[in-house]
Design a protein that fits this description.
The protein is 19% helix and 50% strand. It is of the alpha+beta class and 125 residues long. InterPro entries: ATP_synth_F1_dsu/esu (IPR001469), ATP_synth_F1_dsu/esu_N (IPR020546), ATPsynth_dsu/esu_N (IPR036771).
Length: 125
C-alpha cells in the first residue's frame, strides 16, 4: 500500500508525525488534497482544518492558523505558526479542544472566520 509521511511542526514543537493514506490541506488558494506520489510543491496555508486519513482508514483533525506546506512525492512537512490537535472522529472531539482551537484563532488572520465556522459546526454535534 502506498503511504505518505506527514509531519506537522510549530515553533512550540511537533504536533503530528506518522505515515498516512492522504491529507486535505487548507491552502491559501483553496483546499487541496495530497496522495502518495504527488508532484513536489510548496504552498502557503491559511487558517483551517487539516484532515488526515490514516493508513487504517480513520480520520484525524488538526486546526492551524497559518503556515507553509512542502510536498514531495511521499513526504509532507507542514510548518504552522500555531496548531491544535483536535483528535479523531468529529463526534469524539471534546469541547475543551474546540475552545483551545478557537483561542488559537483569536490571533490568526481574517481568514479564520471560515475555521471558526467549522469549529462551531463541530461544537454543535
Amino acid at each position: 500500500m502506498n503511504k505518505l509521511k506527514l509531519e506537522i511542526v510549530t515553533p512550540s514543537g511537533e504536533i503530528f508525525n506518522d505515515f498516512i493514506k492522504s491529507v486535505l490541506l487548507p491552502g491559501k488558494e483553496g483546499e487541496f488534497g495530497v496522495l502518495p506520489n504527488h508532484a513536489s510543491l510548496i504552498a502557503l496555508l491559511q487558517a483551517g482544518i487539516i484532515k488526515v486519513e490514516n493508513t487504517n482508514g480513520k480520520s484525524e483533525l488538526i486546526a492551524i492558523d497559518s503556515g507553509h506546506a512542502k510536498v514531495d512525492e511521499n513526504e509532507i512537512i507542514v510548518l504552522a505558526q500555531g496548531a491544535v490537535y483536535l483528535g479523531g472522529d468529529e463526534n469524539s472531539i471534546s469541547k475543551q479542544k474546540i475552545e483551545a482551537a478557537k483561542e488559537l484563532l483569536k490571533s490568526a488572520s481574517a481568514n479564520s472566520s471560515a475555521l471558526a465556522a467549522t469549529l462551531g459546526n463541530l461544537d454543535s454535534k
